[in-house]
Every structure is written in structure tokens, then in C-alpha cells.
């Protein structure tokens, strides 16, 4: 799901490019401190990733049995624009949308999943689904920005949202008669893919006439093909994933998902985690977010054994990545949930308490009061919280790291 996290980067880069020339001619002036709404998770500027991080925080709290604070839910639902879409970029997230607000499929899809999971938001969910349907491309897929060419990652997250909302993605068709799954499967690397190890993977989008395998797109497509969203229940059974020499029937989304899972399992064997190229680096660096996505995807496909090594790597290496970042902490909680791991003892860290400390205190389902984790966070009594507090930490992860545009690269 890194593409959804990198939605912030796309918006940020657009704004930076538009403002670069005037800025070069003027003396730099200090930026005002961001105003953090009381209902929002995280202390970083919400301009570029508010909807994304809020949705994952709420999903994670709900998954572990907590009832999120009403003001946190209200902040998310209040970001929905009149036509049903949500925006990753808002010049002022405290003001109502206007016709120029750049709505996007990724923010809308993850908000739909969160509001559906929480319950009591049928109208908002329906409006979000209707908007997503209205911006489907003729090939059956979706782009991050409506009107742009389709790509696998956005198509996948929209399909997941549709499935979670109770829609049948195979029945969601464009004006040209192409279904959502038609759009998704067009990004699948088939029997003629080279190298052979890429067969079964999904590419983000063709580049110079070629479709390179992309780990982010493949993980997202696995969930979409299985008709699942970000929240994956632990599977009762478990079998090792295998990468077929030639993928099974390309017209079957579930079979395609299994082939994609096989690709991810093989990719994880090399280092125990996925990697991505980052600016200035001599060689690919560990990609914690994509690794978490791959673990969730493998668990969804019933292959927890194949994700075991990567899960242990995450336990040992995810603390700095998740530091003060509600979206990252939420993703790790969902990773733990999908694999049947205790999120309150994830590599020695209580992920639930860490997440709760970044936003409004949740309520317990039984009493409506603060959870024990939130009490600990307020008292400062949890020794594991030291690494998650820091007002500016999330900004570097949410914007600077993502500006690499790595989602279009060949990630392994």
C-alpha cells in the first residue's frame, strides 16, 4: 500500500514545483507552524496525508477492539467533499472543499474502508463508492488522479474498497464495458514475462513499452484479487506460497492473486525483506512499508509461513520507520492482526499504546471510557513509548522519504 502513502508525495511535489521559481527569487521566510486539529492523529502537518493516516489509525484501533474517539471519526468523515470524494492534498484541511479541491482515488478508497469498518456511516460510504465508480477509466482501472492513465496500485486499492463496501468488483464496469478486474489483470505479468521470476507479479504502469514487476503493486493486487481490504483476518489454514512457472488462468482474479503471492514470497527470500531505490543511495535500501504490505498480502492468501521471516524482520527493524507516524503504526497493527501476532508485544513494543499516544484517546467498547493503553500514554508510564514521541518525526517519513517516487521503480 505504499502508493497510498506516496499520495502525499505526489501532491507535495506538485506544489513544490509550482512554487519553486518564485521562491528562488525571494528571501526564504519561516513557515508558520501547522495547526493540528484536535481530532487528528499525529503532530505533522496534515495537509498532504491527513485522510490516509487518520484512516489507518482508525482501522487499527477498531481491529484491536477499541472504539475510536468521536472527534477522530468526525474529522475523517468531515473531509468528504460534496460529491463523495476525499483529497490527500488540502491547502487548508479546516475549510470545506471547493470545485478546485484535487480529489483522489487513494484517499477516498482508504476512507471508505475505515468508515465502513466503524459502522454508522452508510451514507458516507455510499457517496464514496459512487464517486469511485464515476471516475473509473474506460479500461476498467483507476488512476490516482481521475482522468490520468490507469495504474495497478490505485486500481487495486479501489477494488479493495469496493469489495469491503459490499460491491462486486467484477460487476463494476466502465462505459466501455470493462470491469474493475479487467483493468487490474491488464497489469499482470504473464507466461512470457522475462525474467521468469517476474511471472505472476504485477507492474505499476508500463514504462517505455515495458511493464516491470513492482512489489507495491503486487501486494495491493493480491488483496484486490482476493476481494479483501487492508484489514485481513488471520487464516485458519496455512500453506507455503509457490511461484508457478507459468501463472494460472489470467482471467481469474483469485488465481492471479495466488500467483502474485508466490512472487512476493520469492522476493522476500533474498534478504528477508523488500528493498527500494532511494535518492543518493548507492544500492537499494530496506523498504519497511512494502515489506509490511507483502506480509499482509501473503497472510491474506493463506501463506503465513512464507511471511514468517519478513514478520520477524519487521519486529526487529520497524521502530524507527514507525516513530510518531500513525499510518505506519496502524499498518503494523494490521500486519500483526493478519498474522495472528500480538500487536501489544511486537518486537518488544506495544503498537496499540504507541498509536493511541499519537491521537485522541480511544474509548473501550464496554464503558466508553479511555482504554488502559490510553491511560498509560497519558501518564507516561509505558517505557516503550519513548521512540514514538517527537513532533516533527512523521514529516520526514511522510514527505521526504516518499518524494523518491519509488512506487514506479522495480522493487524487490
UniProtKB/TrEMBL annotation:
- Residue ranges spanning the membrane: these are 385-403
Note whether Repeat occurs among the keywords.
yes
Q: Where is the Prenyltransferase alpha-alpha toroid domain?
A: 71-168
Any signal peptide, and if so, which residues? Answer: 1-26
Keyword field? Membrane, Repeat, Signal, Transmembrane, Transmembrane helix
| Matching InterPro entries | Prenyltrans, Terpenoid_cyclase/PrenylTrfase
Name-wise, this protein is Prenyltransferase alpha-alpha toroid domain-containing protein
